[in-house]
Amino acid sequence: MPPSADFLKSIPYFSPLSSGEVESIRRQTLELSFSSGEILFLEGEPCRGLYLVRSGKIRIFKTSREGREQVLRIAKRGESFNDVPIFDGGPNPASASALEPSGVYLFPKEAILSLFASCPQALAFLKVFAARLRHLTSLVEDLSFRSVVNRMARLLLEIAVAQGTTLPVPRLTQDEMAARVGSVRDVIGRTLKTLEKAGAIRMEGHRIYIIDAEMLKKIS
Amino acid sequence: MRKGLPEIDSEKCTGCGRCVEECPTGAVELVEGLAVIVRPDDCNYCTDCEPICPHGAIRCPFEIILAPGG
User: Fold this and answer.
1) Which of A21, A134, B8, B40 has its CA 20 to 30 A from that of A41?
2) Which domains does chain A have, with CATH numbers?
3) CB B65 to CB A169 under 8 A?
4) Is the alpha carbon torsion for B49, B52, B58, B63 positive or negative?
5) CATH code (residue B48)
6) Which of B47, B63, B70 shows the shortest C-beta gap to A213?
């Protein structure tokens, strides 16, 4: 059964809509039910649309390469999720599973985007905001799942400049490296020593040479 | 090849001398009330002076370079 107009109007996203727009959304809405533990969708899959919890609770989570999970939030009745890919056009940034027997409404992506047909400026703003939110979600993933050694290896690979090129050589203090990888100076000092001992980098005075980029890639 | 040395911001340096006391190789001294790396050959870029400075006047940046064949 499609959601009632009153229910839709009670959702912050839809409260400013006209009766005609609410009716149009209502007609396109799918109602889905999930048993406890069932997966609604996976991170990385194409986005089907915006979800709204009708009943129960939905767990939104990221999964590391090793299979560890980090819960981002639990969506309850009246709350929406999977908003980001609607607007930035990317895949689902996180996975969703039912924490208990749950019902959700699925508003197809095209139905939501059609609400902005007369205001492309708003859509342009939302696209930027959504991209920022996606970046923050990936930052959560990075900070939750990866050690400082992993993150330092990635940072060094990202910013290193080949010797002899005309590009400006990046110059970072240990405090600045710490800020980039979400750590503190002392840990950075130890991490650089660890990477040097492993044979991935060589410290020479004020220079950090990457001598085994493949090894850094594996560590990152 | 140019030897890297800690960078001392003379605007921020108050001449408190903490870096002079702590430098393990004695490479830094106060000159006219400001910290100066007076013996650059002795500086081994241990970066100990950087966190010690109470005024954030010393920076020890690292250049990050992809070595040939790296």
Assistant:
1) A21
2) 5-143 (2.60.120.10), 147-219 (1.10.10.10)
3) yes
4) positive
5) 3.30.70.20
6) B70
